Amino acid sequence: MRALRDWRAVVVLAALAALLLGMAWLPPLPQSSAFHDFAVTRTRWGIPHFDDVVSNLGFLLVGLWGLVWLLRVHRHWPGRGPGRPFLTRVETWPYLVFFGALILVASGSAYYHWAPNHGRLYWDRLAMTIAFMSLFAAILSERLGTWLDPWFGMRFTALVLPLLILLGMAAATHWAWSEARGAGDLRLYLLSQAIPLGIGSLLILLYPSPYTRGGDLLAAAGWYLLALAAEQLDHEVFALTGGWLSGHTLKHLLAALAGYWVLRMLQRRMPRTLAASPRAYHW
Q1: What's 40's DSSP letter?
Q2: In CATH, what number is assigned to the domain containing residue 263?
Q3: Helix, strand, or coil here: 195?
Q4: Domain range holding 138?
Q5: Does residue 87 lie within any of the structural domains?
Q6: Rounded to 10 degrees, what is the CA torsion of 64, 68, 70, 72?
Q7: Of 14, 173, 256, 264, which shows the fewest CB atoms inside 10 Å?
Q8: How many whole angstroms separate alpha carbon 221 and alpha carbon 201?
Q9: Quick check: is 17 in a domain?
């Protein structure tokens, strides 16, 4: 019951309740067909919407890099003693899923941008929810693991990872199903991003991590928020750069950079002893 009596838990639960109630209060949010009206329409080397398709290579490169690096960590386990990036093997699982999901995002987004429509957009969003939820599972495991171990023990990550992934996939599928019924509703899909970004950031700020460099996750969130802003300014960025770069293409590059920032954190972090300083610097 320790976590329930903690004021930080109250803050996190209140923020989560506010997100859920706020989204429930909104009317259903259909996906506008204008969403597919991207600034870049040029075809190069037989590839339609060339910039928005090819810019997904960033996700592919980061995903492959992350998977290869994590597999090397597994091969050389337990690694470099106190300098290793994970204390237990199970902590690598969410990150393995995350970088694998980035590869799926690359293929799903390229497939969508080749011929944009609602049906193709589903595969892009399905992969994105897996990436978001797996990273959220990593944050929950690292920030709350010591608080929840008395209830779950070392099984917490193994329990929360598949559960969150299924919830994220269900949110994306619900959106596609609602569009097929002619009553599109984005609210659950939006929550699948808002909760990892908002609640995940709160957890990083309020709860200490057993590792250094946790603040890099906030930087990754910042890069992604910039990516969302660029997406909203698709045509404006295209006009500002004289047609050289669109806002949506920039979104892909910034979002891939956010994924790289997660990998950068893992490569540079190391465990620290929280018991030595209970009020230690949380980041």
Answers
A1: -
A2: 1.20.1070.10
A3: helix
A4: 46-272
A5: yes
A6: 180
A7: 14
A8: 8
A9: no
